[in-house]
């Protein structure tokens, strides 16, 4: 049995029966990351990446707390596939909103704006696949290992890391200025990404403050 970064159990398969380098990851295995780029913590698990395999892709899972939102963004470098395994969600792709649930697959070519919201009132999960690999570097730099006291990442750091990994962030279209069109060109400059990251975090923090207020009797 092999250890993957000290965080998971990876079982090598007999090379005489399969191609060299084949392995399986146990259900609770993988490189676990406590993601900090949001108002509350969530768990991202990287199952397969160039860090543990000769892979031209990265594959993992994403655990959604109740009401958690992956805000509107796009990738300049990767194509992405999302597969929903548990819970109910609202997904917005290039301005079109749809309801998705277990068994739904979403294909996202690079440059496609997308947002995912957990709307089911209970924790949810999706699997994600990106090719070529790379975005996992953003997850690693924007996370703590599980068990570490959690704190949100400063918005300026979110913007810096997003620019580093070819991600463009923007506020919810409802909150965005009317003269801020969605385009599919090159990623925004880093200073604009920082401004957008600040707006995203401010809006999500306001939403969570409202949800956490006690209901008057």
Describe this entry's structure for a reader.
The chain is α+β, with helices and mostly antiparallel strands. The protein has a single domain, classed as Sandwich (Jelly Rolls). It is built from three helices and 15 strands. The strands form three sheets. Strands 11-8-13-6-5-4-14 form a seven-stranded antiparallel sheet. The N terminus and C terminus are likely disordered.
CATH class, please? Answer: Mainly Beta
Distance between the termini: 56 Å
Shape: globular
> What fold name stands as the CATH topology?
Jelly Rolls
**Cα-atom Rg, whole angstroms?**
18 Å
Strand content: 25-35%
Largest sheet: 7 strands, antiparallel
**What string gives the helices and strands in order?**
EEEEEEEEEEEEEHEHEH
Q: How many independent structural domains? A: 1
Strand order of the largest sheet: 11-8-13-6-5-4-14
Q: Find the count of extended strands (DSSP E, 2+ residues).
A: 15
- CATH-level-4 superfamily name: Jelly Rolls
Uncertain ranges: 1-7, 172-190, 211-217
Determine the number of helices (DSSP H or I, runs of at least 4 residues). 3
- Mean pLDDT equals 82
Structural class: alpha+beta
Helical content band: 10-25%
CATH architecture: Sandwich
